[in-house]
């Protein structure tokens, strides 16, 4: 376990409110990171994907940095705009 993981575990024990929202927030953060990584791997800028989705660059930034409550249809469009397809898994 690295230092960050140790810190998170200690913080969860000290602050129940932090622990309650941590997992949900972390999952949303990971979605944004995955979207950005996929876009960058495809060699597409935020401006380019915004044009493909007929939206603004700020909307793409918001999706990548604050992916909470993102619609499934938006994820599908984002994936299509970078030449990928969306695949979901329930675990």
Explain how this protein is built:
- It is a single chain.
- By secondary structure, the chain is mostly helical.
- The protein has a single domain (3-81), classed as lambda repressor-like DNA-binding domains (434 Repressor (Amino-terminal Domain)), CATH 1.10.260.
- The chain contains five helices and no strands.
- It has helices at residues 3-14, 16-41, 46-53, 57-65, 72-81.
- Helix 1 runs antiparallel to helix 2 and helix 3 (46-53) crosses helix 4.
- It is elongated and about 45 Å long.
- It starts with a helix and ends in a 10-residue tail after the last helix.
Concise structural overview:
The chain is an all-alpha fold and 91 residues long. It has a single domain, classed as Orthogonal Bundle (434 Repressor (Amino-terminal Domain)).
Layout of secondary structure:
Layout: H1 3-14, H2 16-41, H3 46-53, H4 57-65, H5 72-81
* CATH architecture grouping: Orthogonal Bundle
**Cα gyration radius (Å):** 16 Å
Q: Identify the CATH homologous superfamily.
A: lambda repressor-like DNA-binding domains
Mean pLDDT: 88
How much of the sequence lies in strands comes to: under 5%
List keywords for this structure.
mainly alpha; 434 Repressor (Amino-terminal Domain); 91 residues
